[in-house]
């Protein structure tokens, strides 16, 4: 039983890291219908910039703030210069964002160097404590708490605030929102920036979780994020959380019990969902 609880906590921590990355994709696609394959580039820039500030200052909060700020700035630039000219053209979106992903990945090597960077969590989040025979790792609990907090805050904003009302209205009918005197382009830009900030936040949190960062990890994790978005349902925020937890738990249990399937289990989950419910677990038919 102790082993099961430990695996569940590990799976939840992994799932929350994936959710933070997938949540940004979900927000962007849900409102803007933009397939942003450059999301992994925003993730890795958040990781490197956040870690650089964290190691320089010794403050994790400053590092997280720097990562989020980097995501906001890159999100603004990406939306204005890259995404805005290709609204409504899915093929061009895929090609141009894939190209941007490669550019962001190579720029990391130019700015921060090609070598891996080792990083450790701050002392107050390092180590673990025991409850009976169960080992609870502090940083994993911290990640779970951050993921749940982000889900609650964004859900509240989307469902209980005027900004959320405008966003949800824009999803349903952009023309109606514009007719009410609201600049839908500004709404799009803010949503894209929020999604980019979530990707950058996921980047620095994952950096401290894995203990090492490198330029190519952005592409690896963006694939996981897209799997989660497909399983949960394109545009479903709640679906992204559920799917990320499902993928995280599957990885944790498979890595322990059936190690040779740990890398393939995510693809298997996605294939099963696409066969029996192509629209995703939390999205209705269109």
The residue ranges in which pLDDT falls below 50 over 5 or more consecutive positions are none
Structural class designation: mainly alpha
* Biggest sheet details: 2 strands, antiparallel
State which percent range the strand residues make up.
under 5%
Order of helices and strands: HHHHEEEHHHHEHHH
CATH class label: Mainly Alpha
Strand order of the largest sheet: 1-4
What keywords describe this structure?
11 helices; two-stranded antiparallel sheet; about 5% strand; about 290 residues; ABC transporter involved in vitamin B12 uptake, BtuC; mainly alpha; two-stranded antiparallel ribbon
Report on the structure:
The chain is mainly α. The protein has one domain (2-276): ABC transporter involved in vitamin B12 uptake, BtuC, CATH 1.10.3470. 74% of the residues lie in helices and 4% in strands. It contains 11 helices and 4 strands, in the order ααααβββααααβααα. It has helices at residues 2-32, 39-57, 60-83, 90-112, 138-160, 162-172, 174-179, 184-210, 217-232, 237-257, 265-276, and strands spanning 117-118, 128-131, 134-137, 212-213. Strands 1-4 form a two-stranded antiparallel sheet. Strands 2-3 form a two-stranded antiparallel sheet. α1 (2-32) runs antiparallel to α10 (237-257). The mean pLDDT is 87.
Write a short abstract of this structure.
The protein has helices at residues 2-32, 39-57, 60-83, 90-112, 138-160, 162-172, 174-179, 184-210, 217-232, 237-257, 265-276; strands spanning 117-118, 128-131, 134-137, 212-213.
